[in-house]
Amino acid sequence: MKPTPFEQLGGAERVKALVETFYDVMSEQEPALAQLHSCDPDGKVARTPRERFALFLIGWLGGPEDYVLQHGHPRLRMRHGRVGVNIAMRDAWVRCMNAAMEKHAITGDVRTFLDARFAEVADFLRNTDG
């Protein structure tokens, strides 16, 4: 049986580290995107969004479904509906995730899979033109 992306990445701690890097990159390089989240006084995305996204991503990648158990179905479009997601925001999100994957040296088949899936999901969340 082929390992899940969760297993290919190395489990929960590696996924959590990827999420931390993702939000650090967002805070440093995409402040307009970061400000859509709760931020600490230094402008860095706060703990709660980081923890929630890590929990979601672990399950989405094939790991434990703790996000669903704690928060229910992700309903990504509904949860992001309060924010106008346009092409620029989508692209900024993808840039942050690509930078995080680069910093964690994610390569090979799992990188190819993640590049495609993250781009699909980011585009799916667009809810406004432009």
Layout: helices, strands, pairs:
Layout (H helix, E strand, L loop, with lengths): L4 H5 L2 H18 L1 H4 L12 H14 L5 H6 L4 H5 L6 H17 L4 H17 L6
In short:
The protein has 130 residues and is mainly alpha-helical. Helix content is 66%, strand content 0%. The protein starts with a helix and ends in a 6-residue tail after the last helix.
Radius of gyration: 14 Å
Secondary structure category: mainly alpha
| CATH homologous superfamily descriptor | Globins
Q: Write down the domain tally.
A: 1
Name the beta content range.
Answer: under 5%
* End-to-end separation: 42 Å
Q: Averaged pLDDT, please? A: 89
What is the count of helical runs? 8
Low-confidence stretches: none
Q: Can you count the beta strands?
A: 0
Any idea what the shape is? globular
CATH topology: Globin-like
Reading the helices and strands in chain order gives HHHHHHHH
CATH class identity: Mainly Alpha
Instruction: Specify the CATH architecture.
Output: Orthogonal Bundle
Give the oligomer, counting copies of the same chain as homo and different chains as hetero: single chain
What would you note in describing this structure?
The protein has 130 residues and is mainly α. It has a single domain, classed as Globins (Globin-like, Orthogonal Bundle). It is 66% helix and 0% strand. It has helices at 5-9, 12-29, 31-34, 47-60, 66-71, 76-80, 87-103, 108-124. The longest helix is centred in the N-terminal third of the chain and has 18 residues, at 12-29. It is globular, with a radius of gyration of 14 Å.
